[in-house]
Write a structure and sequence with these properties.
Length: about 130
């Protein structure tokens, strides 16, 4: 998605970009990611920002909540389904400020980072997955 004059990309646009990123993952990762609910909101709510000690809501572009796959077991399943939040306004502000990355690339970066928490990936593993998507 390129920057065009007109309205800012919507939550639906961000969700479409995120789903497009997930569809480019290898099949086994897509299967594991299928159980993670993905939501797009304009900003994180105040309780999340307070809990994370973040004063500026533009500093949080995504958040994973749930038990990483590497910690879940049959005898100790997660009480809540895993969830990835993408925060539209921080993503759009970073996209506009940077100017050197497409919206799809930025959304993919946030998506892989948050799903990386679900998979239990290190930062290096997240970067390898992003490089493989290009």
């Amino acid at each position: 998605m390129s920057r065009l004059p007109g309205p800012a990309p919507s939550a639906e646009d961000i969700l479409d970009a995120a789903e497009g990123c997930l569809k480019r993952l290898p099949e086994q990762m897509q299967a594991a990611a299928a159980g993670v609910r993905l939501v797009v909101e304009d900003y994180a709510d105040a309780a999340i920002l307070d809990e994370m000690q973040i004063e500026d809501p533009l500093e949080l572009s995504g958040l994973y909540s749930g038990v990483p796959l590497i910690h879940e077991s049959v005898t100790h399943p997660s009480p809540d389904p895993p969830l990835v939040h993408l925060y539209r306004m921080p993503i759009l502000f970073e996209w506009a400020e940077r100017g050197d990355v497409s919206l799809d690339e930025l959304v993919s970066h946030v998506v892989i980072h948050e799903y990386g928490h679900h998979f239990g990936w290190s930062d290096d593993e997240m970067h390898r997955v992003l490089d493989a998507l290009d």
